[in-house]
Amino acid sequence: MQLATWNVNSLAVRLPQVLDWLAAHPVDALVLQETKLTDDKFPAEQIQAAGYQVAWFGQKTYNGVALLSKQPAQDVVRNIPGLDDDMARVISGTVAGVRVIGGYFPNGQAPDSEKFQYKMRWLQALRNWVRTELAAFPQLVLMGDFNIAPEDRDVYDPVAWAGQIHCTPEERAHFRELVALGLVDAFRLFEQPPKSWSWWDYRNLAFRKNQGLRIDHILVSAALKPQVASCSIDKLPRKNERPSDHAPVLVELRG
DNA sequence: ATGTCACCTGGTAGGTGA
Question: Which of A21, A146, A179, A252 is most buried (most C-beta within 10 Å)?
């Protein structure tokens, strides 16, 4: 089966691109971030017409996530249970026996900001919850826009970005702690092209200059690791007219 | 060196977030 994650930066704008991409990449499940739609405005009918089931969880203006799947997702959960959070950031469901968690992690703005403190609290709550989820669902995939570049090789200019948001030691420690729960970064299971990024700022001609970060990730559980056949970033949609600033990331599982 | 995009409010621009 194939799974994918994509931060679309407004599904209202990017729905045609999502449907085009699914036609070319008919993955079994796709999680979306930054849909930026209230639930009453979610384009469920157009997605269903394209052959996908969908569960969604949004809010006005910001955030918003969705889980698209060929087979309907079972036991859908929205956000992190037990965390008091007014932002729509997580949607989970079981697809073909795999527990899929799609997340839009907080950006954090700047290391000295209140938003960074929220990011730290959110990451701690996520870790505690994923620990229990892994115990209940050994076959688990955690994917989405983590807003964390795990290592210097995930940053186009690690010197300039040292200590900046997405690259702080605190964020990187949280990433490692998530992995330490019993997950693996599927992208790094394979030889990858150098300078592989999943996000390029809209500003500064960053995509043309390939100045990006790898902040969108697919973590798979130890039980699934032997089944991982490939993992890649699809840069093509970033070349569209009116692209999202993020590219989709895909993983293929055998069996 | 610089270079954006999407959304909101409230109004035909400015502010916010990323």
Answer: A146
Give distance CA A203 / C1' B5 (Å): 9
3-state secondary structure of A179: helix
Q: Phi first, then psi: what are they for A151, rounded to 5°? A: -140, 165
State how far the Cα of A93 lies from the Cα of A149, in Å rounded to an integer: 26
CA atoms of A237 and A216, how far apart (whole Å): 15
User: Given CA atoms A191, A196, A197, A198 in this order, what sign does their dihedral have?
Assistant: negative
d(CA A80, CA A85): 8
Q: Please tell me what DSSP assigns to residue A210.
A: T
- Parallel/antiparallel/unpaired status of strands A249-253 and A199-200: unpaired
- Tell me the C-alpha distance between A107 and A174, whole Å: 14
CA nearest to A70, candidates A45, A51, A50: A51
Q: Could you tell me if A48 and A62 are in contact, meaning their C-beta atoms sit under 8 angstroms apart?
A: no
Question: For tokens 């795990």, what's the residue?
Answer: A150
Of A239, A205, A189, the C-alpha closest to A20 is: A239
Q: In what order do the strands lie in the sheet with A140-145?
A: A74-78, A90-95, A98-104, A140-145, A216-221, A183-185
Q: Residues of chain A whose pLDDT is less than 70? A: none
A205 touches strand B (CB under 7 A): yes
Query: Tokens 């979610």 label which residue?
Result: A42
Asked if the Cβ of residue A59 lies within 7 A of any atom of strand B, the reply is: no
pLDDT for res A116: 97
In the residue annotation, A62 being an active-site residue is answered as: no
Quick: pLDDT tens for A59-72. Answer: 999 999 999 999 99
Task: Tell me how far apart the alpha carbons of residues A73 and A57 are, in angstroms, rounded to a whole number.
Answer: 14
